[in-house]
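Course assignment 3, question 2. Fill in each field.
Student: A.L.
Task: Predict the tertiary structure for the chain below.
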Amino acid sequence: MAYYFILIAEKFRNLGKFTFADITAYRLEAKPIRVISAISALSVIIFYLIAQMVGAGQLIQLLFGLPYTFAVILVGILMICYVTFGGMHATTWVQIIKAILLLAGASFMAFMILYLTKFDLKYYFDLAISHHPKGENIMKPGTFLPDTVSALSLGLALMFGTAGLPHILMRFFTVKDAKEARKSVFYATGFIGYFYILTFIIGFGAIALLFTNPQFTNADGSFNGASNMIAITLAEVLGGDIFLGFILAVAFATILAVVAGLAISGAGTISHDLYVNVIKNGNVNHENEMKVTKIATITIGIFAILLRIVFEKQNVAFTVGLAFAIAASVNFPILLLCIYWKNLTTKGAFWGGLIGLIVVLALVILSPSIWVKSFGFNQAIFPYDHPALFSMPLSFLLIYIISKLDNSKRSQKDKEGFKAQSGIGISEAIMH
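Answer field:
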C-alpha cells in the first residue's frame, strides 16, 4: 500500500494540480468529470464528518457534562469559525502539532499498559480474555467483522480508499516537488503503521484494565461508558487527571484538525470545482471564489451538525469505513485509470463513476447499520455493512467497458490527453 500510495503522490504532484477533480479534468472533459468528482468527494466528506463529529460530541459531553446535541452544535460552530478565519495554514499547523502529541500520548499509554501487565503478553491476553463478556472469542477474527466478506470488504475500503480521500489528495501539492511528495508519504506511512501497533496494545489494555474494575462495567460485564470513549477512560486510569486532560486536549485537537481539513476540502470542491469551473466556466475573480468558499463552509458545517445528531448511536469506526468505501469505489478507480490507463474516456469515467457511486450509496443505506439501526426497519435489504467488495470491482468494470465502447470524437481527445499528461510527469521527474 505504501509503495502504491507513493506512485499516486508522485504523479499527483508532477501534474501540479490542487484537487482530485483537477487531475481527472486535465485529460478528460472538464464539466462532467468535475460534477461526478464533486458529488463523490462531498459524499466521502459527509460520512467522514459524521464520524468525527459524533466522536467530538461525545468527547465534549464527557469533558463538560453537556448534553450530546448541545455539544455537537458547539463543536460545529467552532469548526466553522476555525476554518472560515484560519484556513489551510492554521489547519496544517494544528495537524502537525497534534500528530506529535498524539504519538507521544499513545506511546505512553502503550508503555504503561505493558508495564502494569508485567511486559508479559500471555498474562496480558489472559487478563483481557478472563474479564471480557465474549471470553476467548475476542482473540478470534470476526468480533468487529462477523464474516469473511465483511472483513475483505472493509480491508479493500481502507487500503484503496485512502488513495481517494479528497482531503488527503489535496495535500500532495503543498510540497515543493515530487521527491518531497514521496518522502512525506514514506514518513507518514511509517508513523501510521507505528500508531496501528499502539492501538492494538491500547485496545486489549482497555479490556484488561477497565473490565477488571466494577466502576467501569455493568452487571453483564460490558463497559458502562460511551462506547467510543474507552481509550479516554483508560487514560484516566493510567495517568490520573493530568494525563486525562492531556489526552482529551490531543483528542479534541485531532478531531478539530480532521474536521477542519474535511471542511476545507468540501468547501473547495463546491467553490473551485462546481462554482468556478462548472457554473462560471472559470470566469470568477478570487474574491468571489473566497466568498463562495466561506458560504460553503458554513453550509457544510450546519448540514454536518444535523447528520451528527441523527447518527449519534453509530460506531465511529463503522462510519469512517463507509467514507473509505465510497472513496475506494468511485475516486480511486477514476484516479488510478486516469493516471495510468491511456484508453480511459470521459464517458467511461463519468457513467462508470456515477453508477458506482449510486450503487455504493444504495448499499450503504440498505445495510444493517443504516437500514435497521438508524432507520428502524426490522431487516436489512443488503446483508453486509461494508460494500466495497461489491462496488469497487463494479466501478472498475463499468469504467473499462464504457471506455472501450466509446468511439466518440471526445474519446480521441481523451487518449491524446494521456500522452500530454505522461509528458509532464517525465519532464518533472527529469528536473528533480
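Instructor remarks: The radius of gyration is 23 Å. The chain has 15 helices and no strands.
Grade: pending
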